[in-house]
Write a structure and sequence with these properties.
- It contains eight helices and 55 strands.
- With 792 residues, the protein is mostly beta strands.
- Among the domains are: 73 residues, no CATH class; 116 residues, Immunoglobulin-like; 190 residues, no CATH class.
- Strand 13 and strand 14 form a beta hairpin.
Length: 792
């Protein structure tokens, strides 16, 4: 419970030297730093869902000491049991004699649904515990068999969808009632149901929810999301593909790319199989021939391997084939002695296929014979037999990437870990298996990287092999036009071991400045690019890292914003007033006084600046609460309430403009709002010679940056409060709309000066009034004299 004094002392010494523990959550993109407590243990606050935590503990490497914190992974559960079933609930079963099948959440693999002819079993903790799932028939008729016969199912966040007969049914986790509704789910003609096999939660597609479920009829394909809300009138399944009667959908699956999905199609009278592929955020379907040789006979199963380029595994009962890198290469999967898979398994058929993140692939036959290969190899080899042919067995991959063997026995479900690596080494004994490399590692270990304009990310990969093997590392990507990649290679050979170190610099380099319309360029240069690091040669005996695919989001990083930093010598006051009045003569859009109620939450504190001081905003760039860098790009400012009594101290000539620069007067045309009138989309630099006329260079230069001599100055006649908006206008700086608000209150003008200012306006008024009174007096005197003379 509490570490000993000696361990506490040793850990503290290592901590002082820079060693500390770091926690990485599978559900949280950023690493969590831990704190070393006085009690001698590490403490960290875990974020996210408190019902489930899957975390990795890693160590910060320190020179000389290496790593003292052992890398490990842990899972914590907080599950709630299902409500007890009454007499009304009935079972869900596969047809009698069917082999078991299993589905689990791609992002929550600890939740799984096991289908068998004995019942359907649900686990919330990777089969540490499980219980039979039953349903309340509700308004549905009770089946004659006493149970519902299902053919497939998928797990959603708040319930399950079952394929029963030719329709889809819904069971909510809360009430357990089985429902059928044609407006929610497909009510007839359903031929198949498919579930996402790769987690897409980390895929950075903002404001767009990727599908989780696919269902199809003979000629139509539908998709559904993570959750189904039965209380609303909206449909859960949406039609995404309709084919003519001459085309039949054989199968459908989610693609190698998280946003892609595909349908396997055969046309009437054709002997070819076709693959229709679409990206969800595009909605455009592309058709390509699946296999140009002998056509396989269905029914078919499909599994897309997570990769930068589309990689597909297709099989029927007896044959497996796969394609690499967008159909560049097709191969059959065969047994080592070139016999067919079915013949090697004593005539049995393929039951199902399981693949982990290190691309270890297990092919299970219906008679429980197991074959293995590292995906990418075209040779399977047989693993030692673990179960009798007559037993009902299924394989399950849990959240720790462990293979779990589930066996249905007379006494119930038997759960057992399958020692994959041990069985692989046992099966390889005496065979010719030689991994071409000794070790392969890299630092591309984040699911998502964000690349803004002008930014770059450096990655490295290292591969060690025996002398003369000539092994290298390749970085594949699916969109060549978005990112630029430069690479450097360092090679060394010591004691017959060759070490290749490759460094990749990945950056975005599109020029937006001085382009008349950069919207098309912006569209083509902002996208999501998938990258994959793999060795050029692989063998079944190789160990590959789990992290091989990362997505690079080229665009505005989440929570990126700018802040105006308070100068050290400037006080920043809060809640010192509630409102203030702006005189009408300093407003650009009105002549009436304006009463402003100051919004402290939106505008922040007020910087107190001496009225004679010149001010230039110091702008910092942040990602959330993390400081990124100081902003050195061009920016503009404008007063939020249209004050015009502030000035810029430099002219266009003084800053060496080559022609007349943009100004607020020239940009605020057609009654545009300041927020929309001027920005990166229409910014033009005056330092680029565009062969225009020189113009008036004695105007104030209204653009600032960190290194310029341009400042803001304020009224010297009266104190004032200014609320400024600041906006980055450099089109090459960021994909984000970077703007912020800051407020300034001037001080230093004495009361005498202010009285003099009032007198300066009052004295001319009094003189004018005296003159008018004198004129009026003279006029009345002359008029009175004229009347008296007339009367006489």
């Amino acid at each position: 419970m509490i570490p000993s004094v000696y361990f506490r002392y040793l850990t503290k010494r290592l901590f002082v030297g820079g060693e500390f523990a770091v926690i990485e959550l599978s559900s949280f993109p950023q690493a969590i730093q831990s704190n070393f407590t006085n009690q001698g243990f590490w403490e960290a606050l875990l974020l996210g869902d408190h019902k489930y935590h899957h975390l990795h503990i890693i160590s910060q490497s320190v020179s000389f000491h290496g790593k003292s914190v052992a890398s490990s992974q842990h899972v914590f559960y907080g599950t709630s049991p299902e409500k007890p079933y009454g007499d009304k609930e009935v079972s869900l079963r596969l047809p009698t004699g069917s082999p078991m099948s299993i589905v689990w959440g791609a992002c929550t693999p600890y939740r799984a649904l096991l289908l068998s002819d004995k019942g359907t079993f649900m686990t919330k903790n990777a089969f540490l515990t499980y219980e039979e799932m039953k349903v309340d028939p509700g308004e549905l008729l009770m089946p004659d068999e006493g149970y519902y016969v299902v053919s497939d199912a998928v797990l959603l966040g708040n319930g399950s969808v079952f394929h029963i007969g030719d329709a889809l049914f819904w069971r909510d986790n809360e009430d357990g009632i089985l429902r059928r509704n044609p407006t929610k789910l497909i009510d007839e003609g359903v031929k198949g149901l498919s579930f996402r096999t790769h987690c897409a939660d980390d895929y950075p597609l903002p404001e767009f929810e990727l599908a989780t479920v696919l269902a199809w009829t003979d000629h139509e394909l539908y998709k559904g999301g993570k959750n189904l809300d039965w209380t609303t009138n909206s449909s859960y399944m949406s039609n995404i593909l309709s084919l003519p009667k001459t085309a039949t959908i054989l199968n459908a699956a989610f693609g190698s790319h998280p946003a892609s999905l595909s349908a396997l199609v055969m046309y009437t009278g054709s002997v070819q199989l076709y693959l229709l592929t679409s990206y969800e955020n595009e909605g455009i379907w592309r058709n390509r021939t699946l296999w140009s040789r002998n056509v396989l006979q269905g029914p078919f199963q499909m599994l897309f391997v997570s990769a930068a380029l589309e990689t597909l595994l297709v099989w029927n009962k007896d044959t497996m084939l796969y394609s690499f890198h967008n159909d560049i290469e097709w191969r059959y999967l065969q047994i080592m002695d070139s016999s067919s898979i079915s013949q090697e398994a004593n005539g049995s058929h393929i039951h199902h296929v399981v693949m982990d993140h290190s691309r270890n692939m297990l092919v299970k036959m219906e008679n429980n014979v197991l074959f293995f290969c590292k995906f990418g190899m075209n040779k399977l080899f047989r693993l030692p037999t673990w179960n009798d042919p007559g037993r009902s067995v299924v394989l399950y991959l849990n959240q720790k990437e462990q293979i779990i063997m589930l066996t249905m026995l007379d006494g119930g479900l038997h759960v057992q870990k399958y020692p994959l690596q041990m069985e692989i080494r046992s099966a390889m004994r005496g065979e010719v298996h030689d991994c071409p490399f000794i070790g392969f590692t890299h630092n591309m270990n984040r699911p998502v990287y964000y690349v803004d304009k002008g930014e770059g990310i450096e990655l490295w990969a290292q591969i060690v092999n025996h002398e003369g093997k000539n092994i290298n590392v390749t970085l594949s990507r699916n969109k060549d036009h978005v990112l630029h990649i430069t690479e450097r290679t360092h090679f060394e050979s010591v004691h017959h071991l060759d070490t290749t170190n490759k460094t990749f610099y990945i950056y975005q380099d599109a020029g937006y400045r001085d382009i008349t319309n950069n919207s098309d360029l912006l569209w083509n240069s902002s996208d999501i690019v998938s990258l994959e690091l793999v060795p050029t040669q692989v063998d079944n005996s190789c160990n590959l890292p789990k992290e091989q695919i990362s997505h690079f989001f080229v665009g505005c990083p989440p929570n990126r914003h700018i802040r105006v930093i308070k100068p050290q010598s400037v006080p920043c006051e809060m809640h010192t007033f509630h409102n203030y009045t702006i005189p009408g003569f300093v407003l650009s859009n009105s002549s009436k006084d304006l009463l402003v109620f100051y919004d402290w939450k939106s505008f922040g504190c007020v910087l107190r600046i001496h009225y004679k001081d010149e001010f230039r905003p110091d702008i910092k760039l942040y990602d959330g609460e993390t400081f990124v860098r100081s902003v050195d790009a061009n920016f503009i400012v404008w007063e939020n309430f249209n004050r015009k009594d502030y000035y810029f101290n430099a002219t266009m000539r003084q800053v060496a403009c080559l022609h007349e620069a943009q100004t607020w007067k020239s940009m605020l045309v057609d009654e545009k709002r300041p927020e929309e009138a001027w920005g990166p989309h229409n910014y033009r630099s005056c330092f680029v010679d565009n062969s225009e006329k020189l113009g008036n260079l004695d105007q104030p230069y209204e653009i600032m940056n960190r290194s310029s001599t341009n400042y803001i100055s304020f009224s010297e006649e009266y104190t004032a409060i200014y609320v400024f908006n600041v906006k980055i206008v450099d089109p090459n700086y960021s994909f984000c709309d970077l703007r912020a608000v800051f407020a300034i209150q001037t001080y230093g003008i004495s009361v005498v000066d202010q009285l003099f200012l009032h007198y300066k306006f009052l004295i001319p008024f009094l003189i004018t009034l005296i003159i008018l009174c004198f004129i009026f007096y003279r006029y009345t005197s002359i008029f009175r004299d004229m009347l008296q003379k007339k009367c006489v």
